[in-house]
Amino acid sequence: MPREIDVTSESQLNPYLLPPKFYFLRCDRAHKHVLKTQDPPFRRNRAVRQGPQAFTPPPHFIGPAQTEFASLSSLADIVTPKSTTPADFLPECRSGAFNGTKAVYRTFHSVSITGRIEGDVVEALAGAGVRFISHCGAGYDQIDVQKCSEFKIHVSNTPTAVDASTADTALFLLLATLRNFPPSLLSLRSHQWRGSPPLRLGHDPEGKTLGIIGMGGIGRNLALKCRALGMKILYHNRSRLSEEVEREARADYRGFEDLLAESDVVSVNCPLNEQTRHLLGEAELKKMKKGGIVINTARGAVINEEALV
Prior knowledge:
By secondary structure, the chain is α/β, with parallel strands linked by helices. It contains 12 helices and 12 strands. A 5-stranded mixed beta sheet has the order 4-1-5-6-7. A 5-stranded parallel beta sheet has the order 10-9-8-11-12, sandwiched between helices. It has a two-stranded antiparallel ribbon with strand order 2-3. The longest helix has 16 residues. It is elongated, with a radius of gyration of 24 Å.
């Protein structure tokens, strides 16, 4: 039982220009397969088999994994919705276009097509047959997990994939702000070697106290890296870590307000949810040391930006 699949070769693709889209995987009882791609950077490709359906939102950048992504066609159809906005996506879901879908793969950027996965969207996906949503990212605030659970849709995320890289970014921002690097670079690029007026002096990280809000994988990774710089590590979590993990991270637990008061630098690494939205507002920021630094590599809404400014 041969399959006929015409897939554009990698040499004809520009994997770095893919717009955010939604893909569906479909399977039928005969376990036949089809691959459809309708992204603008591609020539339209189509396999002659029809088959099982699993519903998948596309990645924003598939990049070098294009071959691996196309290989999913051996398991199920990959179908791209025609919708480009949330206003169009819900009616398309209800139209039956995705009936038979079993799984969804989505990225952060696909929210521009689908809107937040909640309410009527979840109900429509469940009605189409969706039973699994795979989110390519650690934070899943774009998905109403409780609503999905009500409709027996499983949701997964990738909580450890970017621990090191996000911690690296936080460390970069920490050093840049302590050492006053951004104004120095701007001054240099404007051909003012010492600045006009002269720039304020930077500060060494050694001996400073870092307070981490959210001691998950990213927070623990950052703690180890900053400990190597001679920083004292405090943390606050919704639940205190075990003594073994605290020893490994060489971090001391503090209550939320005590952490703010004692820290020279506060790093925000917690997920965004109803409990953490605007976790840092005017009252909390006033509890920090004068000249204290806030590094946020979590969602922006964890901090009340108006209060920060």
